[in-house]
């Protein structure tokens, strides 16, 4: 089982705050003539897309859909992926004149999808992004007063409830990709039900229409939860897909994915290939291998271009997957499960499915969260297969045996049953829901998960001993970060190290800042040495960031030092956004402790007190302060094989043993001060 770090942040991802314009014309100031040309171009794009819209399966259902929404408060819409649900539904309602008293909100579990949908729909309507169509994802809001169709992540709509408890600016809320069952979507279901009820009972409010949408959904379950019987099925367009299983179990899915994709390229007629991989790291390795393979192809063969699709990919690169492959080339798309239902890519005829995805799991008994590579469910496998048959008959190569498929779970377990609930419980408390046990969950979390979350929030002083939210808790809830990080950021003001904390939170937002290629492990380790601080990983990351900035993110420098340039760019973006956030929250982002790292580590302890561990006598590893559990330092840590009296970590992962990651040296005497402060 592999494990990745990237736990610091509550949303699935941070991203560039740079808005892209609808056509590739940049958002600079225009003179009159340029403005006219620009408007004309937008208009022409919309005209062209109109023909495309008419071909979508949902187009024929237009009137029925509008009528059903008119007649019902809550409806469920189910339709094959690519049928046009996410892009067309809001436009139909708008065109039918249903939207006069507020805007339409459409939620997505993933920010990538929210952004790409908003851009597409702005193009289709013929408006500039941010005018009538906009998006709002964490730290990046392009919507304005005139926005009538707003795409947002489920997390953002939840946050809007903090300032607008009845969501009065919306008259229709569309909860899209409902089957994904993220923790935030699940909580949103319950909250939207409450809002709808409250607005119904208050004659001064306009009623709220709710639409629940999905490609694959247990519609009955949702129908009874939302007290509706109205289920609209959009007839799909799906061609047969022939499925191939591996004869034997594959020991190395990456190797198998490479072999299969290149075999398809050599032996099969044109058509793009979509490869499903668990995460960014695998995607980047495979990209390299395929690109190298591409250079060995004879000139008379189809050329290969690769396209990547994962959550942390910068926006400019995400949109590239939609470009059709140029003549004489075959596109190979390397994607995470984003391409399963969130984003439809045209032109795919072949699917290569590793059968793996990254999954977050929380073990409430030991308080350990892990992000590990797991087998997908049967539903996911079938959804992946379907991607090959959208436009013509297709082929799906499953890199696992039929027997392995039969052993897969039917569905993926909803996040609320397996993740750390602290951030979501803090939000519920901030909404004034004191009895979180009795909240109307679609699927209730286990008592032990709830208890863990409440305990953690109490220790962070976000809740008092009656379980009520404190002023600090309220402030923490306004940060779209995991509670421990929000607490550290708030504490950093008093401890004069906000700048360093912002840097650390940003650095921890990516999988990894170092590259460690299999065949150059030793060289990579050698280069890493110059950044290493005896105080451990966090300060080592800070050293690297400083050096990166001195060299202005130079590509050669990154290569030489085995630094992941893409991820570092991401870090810089996240930092920009955190700086804005702190400024908004009246925390000066420039307060610095310079190199007084003792102060910085003490500040980190305010949030990670329970994540400290004391060295045991003999060679027996460390024991956590939180719950006396024996843990070890992860081999990837700069403190591996080093003995320090006490350490603090930001993440615990479970592989063969429990391992601490992102480890720093602390002194046990600090813990006394912190613990009395925490319990005061
Ligand atoms: P659904 O929600 O039913 O899965 P969508 O409304 O997202 O379908 O997509 C309908 C069609 O629009 C798809 O064929 C898709 O390829 C295309 N499309 C959606 N977003 C974009 C985009 N950003 N760029 C290009 N094409 C897009
Ligand atoms: Mg959709």
TrEMBL record:
The family database entries (Pfam families) matched by this protein are listed as: DEAD, HA2_C, Helicase_C, OB_NTP_bind, WHD_HA2
Catalysed reaction(s) here are: ATP + H2O = ADP + phosphate + H(+)
Under the heading Gene3D superfamilies, the entry gives: 1.20.120.1080, P-loop containing nucleotide triphosphate hydrolases
Q: Write down the top EC class of this protein.
A: hydrolase
Chain segments carrying region Disordered:
1-26
EC code(s) of this entry = 3.6.4.13
Q: Which UniProt keywords apply?
A: ATP-binding, Helicase, Hydrolase, mRNA processing, mRNA splicing, Nucleotide-binding
- Identify the residues that the record assigns to the Helicase C-terminal domain, covering every copy: 260-432
Q: Does the keyword Heme apply?
A: no
Q: Which residues form the signal peptide?
A: none
What is the protein name given in its UniProt record? RNA helicase
